[in-house]
Write a structure and sequence with these properties.
Elements: H1 3-31, H2 38-70, H3 73-94, H4 107-130, H5 134-156, H6 162-184
Helix pairs in contact: 1-4, 1-5, 1-6, 2-4, 2-5, 3-4, 3-6
């Protein structure tokens, strides 16, 4: 029966990875309207994926430290952080779409990857407080954000920006739901 909690954790982390990747997806939709070669799209997805590994890892290390120092209070704080991030994602989805002010090349690519992965630092902080499996979390976050970035960039060539707002709303709703689950458990 030890595999049942693992499966539950895998499903939960997969949904969280999807929620975090929605930001990269929605920004990728807008960025995909810039003429980009497939090589550039490949590189952008890999860099975003790398940031979605580095940022939550840093957050998880800090979260575990705080959890060891503060105990159960950190679980509630982590849940509250997820709810706040979810609300922020939801709110930003109903604001007017912003056109990218830079191209995803060089320093602009690093800024893009950092901007779509900042929320994964906070989620990593929360997850570190909760004590989830680090390697599993980082692999799921990195893979999901890479795939969703690629999909967003490729669809951005074909689709107008209306889908981006809905995907960010969905991502924010997922983060809120998991944050409430942490607070209430």
């Amino acid at each position: 029966m030890a595999s049942v909690p693992y499966v539950g954790e895998l499903i939960t982390l997969s949904f969280m990875a999807l929620a975090l990747g929605m930001d990269a997806f929605s920004v990728g939709l807008g960025m995909g309207m810039i003429p980009l070669r497939l090589r550039r799209i490949l590189l952008i997805g890999l860099v975003v994926g790398a940031f979605h590994i580095m940022m939550p890892f840093t957050g998880m290390v800090l979260g575990r430290f705080l959890s060891n120092q503060l105990g159960d209070v950190t679980t509630i704080a982590g849940g509250a952080l997820l709810v706040i991030l979810g609300i922020q994602m939801f709110r930003s989805s109903i604001q007017k779409e912003r056109a990218p002010v830079f191209t995803p090349v060089g320093f602009g690519l690093l800024i893009f990857a950092l901007s779509v992965s900042l929320d994964s630092f906070s989620v990593g902080l929360s997850l570190g407080m909760f004590g989830v499996r680090t390697v599993l979390t980082l692999i799921l976050f990195g893979l999901m954000s890479t795939l969703l970035t690629w999909i967003g960039l490729l669809l951005g060539k074909k689709v107008q920006g209306i889908l981006g707002a809905y995907s960010e709303m969905f991502g924010g709703s997922i983060l809120c739901a998991f944050g409430m689950q942490l607070i209430l458990s």
